[in-house]
Amino acid sequence: MPRFSIIVPSHGVAGRLSQALDSVLAQSFGDLELIPVCDGPDAPAASVVAPYAERDSRVAPVHSPPAAGLSGARNTGMRAAHGTYLLFLDGDDVLVPGALALLDARLAETGDVDVLYAEHERTPWWEGEPTNPAAPLLAGLPSGAFTPDRAPRLTGVALPAWSAVYRRSFLTERHLRFPDGHFTDLGWGGLTSVAAERIAVLRSVVVRHRLRRQGSRLNLPGPHQRELLDQVELVLERAAALPGDRARALFEQVFAVVLKTAAQPERMPAGHRAFFRRAARLHRTHRPDGFRMPGGSVGVQHRLLAAGAYTAFRVLRGANRIAAGAAGRLPRPHMPFTRLRYALDLRRPLDANLAVYCAYWGRGYVCNPAAIHAVARVLAPHIRSVFLVEAGQEHGVPDDVESVVIGSRRYWEVLARAKYLVNNANFAEGVVKRPGSVHLQTQHGTPLKKMGVDQSTYPVVAAQTGSFTRLLGRVDRWDFNLSSNRHSTQTWERAFPGSYRTLEYGYPRNDVYYTASAHDVVRARRRLGVPDGRTAVLYAPTHRDHHTGFESGLDLEAFCEAAGEDVVVLLRAHYFYDRGRRAGTGRVIDVTAHRSAEDVCLAADALITDYSSIMFDYANLDRPIVVYADDWEVYRQTRGVCFDLMAEPPGPVAHTPEELARIFREGSYRGPESRRLRAGFRARFCQFDDGLAAERVVRRVFLGRPPEEIPTVIPLAERLPAPAATLVRS
Q1: Structure pTM?
Q2: Which of 212, 670, 707, 708 has the fewest beta carbons closer than 10 A?
């Protein structure tokens, strides 16, 4: 029987779950079992947990459906636990180093107690000093084990479930479980403190609670706010038999939470008056004998609540304040006349049948926005579309698609009126997120390099990124965020913390890799000027933040000579360098300026890249990929990466031009080891790309279909990619 069972619910926190698990398994005290509670075997968290369970026998994952909520997940973990003591850890929090050793030592001093309360640290998600809200509650309490009547104000209501450890046999004997519904920590804390007969405290931080940028889910508006009173009533009924001091302290602390919620009617768009009336009944029914109203404003609130004086309560608390002017304080277009017209357009109704698209800050009709638009024209023909382009790039949009120049009067008008706004980067700083509008962030690649706020610790990149506060202000406009694999889902969650909903639908731009025919492949090669019978190798290096311009990093003519007489290279630089370049001649063809990256990939028989995200898209074609990593350590240290590409490459890795040429000359780029590496890479990073991504997006976002009506992802083994040119020739 282990000393501790650590139960870790994981719903909605897969992106940070590994840090929580690492913090447990890295503890110096190892007599433990770790019980991650996942939504199901195919849930995002399950893919994070699986490697831990394979490596460490102490990790024993269990499953609880999302509908069961936090309480159901914790109760499932409790039923699976075997430890003498239970500790609950949220999936985005961590145990501080040495925490279990401190707990074990303290329990050795106090003997078996029902509950051992400990301190915790609340860490701001970005900047600011950590706080220790439990320290004042635990200060001045007895040094050994004691009965609850010696510390009547230690009710458990003011402490989260992860700020204590609980003797498992005590919970079993008293049939204690987390109450269903929201605010379960309040119910759990109250019930365990009422039932406990012997407790102790540890005046050391055990858990580091990492605040979410979007705040607690419990603070969001909605009908779940009424469930607070269910927990309050449950606790107060159990507390009826408590002695006077404990009953009065519990009552006061419970109603401190109730009053805080009652003072914020915006949390309950409907039913606030009913909430107040029920709270008033509970106050009158369960008020303990001898309870004295607190002094000051809090005491007035208690009296008004007890009297059911709803109107007077709202006036006192200023509950009729309206958060007006928030949109007005956002940046606006610079020109006064344009600013005035934009402000007026924002007052006009949304156009429910207008969608605005933008790709790569106005580079034209490309990437995920273009792929979504093409399918929307078929499945949602009632929606009118406008593409945003930079001045001079209007030719990059098909003649039958309306376009608007960024910065023009018409540009601000359509941004103000459109219900749907689709972008693979971000809209301008001054764009206002209107109620009822739907912003879809499609992204434009799978992340290998650090993104978003994860860049903050890399000075070269952070200096170029600009204000992270402004970045996150743009993230706050997103309603949906696309993902093509679980790795991306988890990375976006960390890099762009927000309240958006992730759509694990795949990237629409990759649909063509499963819908293109052999004739499409031939046409793509002819458009790019690839000679018949040649092996076309796409060379697509990524941008280097520590370089000031494009550097190919490789002598391509020399590579062609050394790799074989049938090899030609398609050079595609990063899109930062796609202006003014011309198609090359001979054995090196510069395709940087070609609008469609998908065309280029279809035309290529193999890919050479360094750290570009094009490798994740190209892997859908199941064609050879070679990594040319001549400066991996420099890139990793200056740019930061999300995983070790050298340990999990999509194919052979070369570190010198000679190695690279030999891989092609000898044919190992398409050999069995290359196929093995590519299969593992595809399984991880091509999870949701199956040719139906754009359809999923249109049905969900534009047509409002429920998740159960969205086409499911075709298993990887059943997908048939577009054939390579070598297969077309044969």
Answers
A1: 0.75
A2: 708
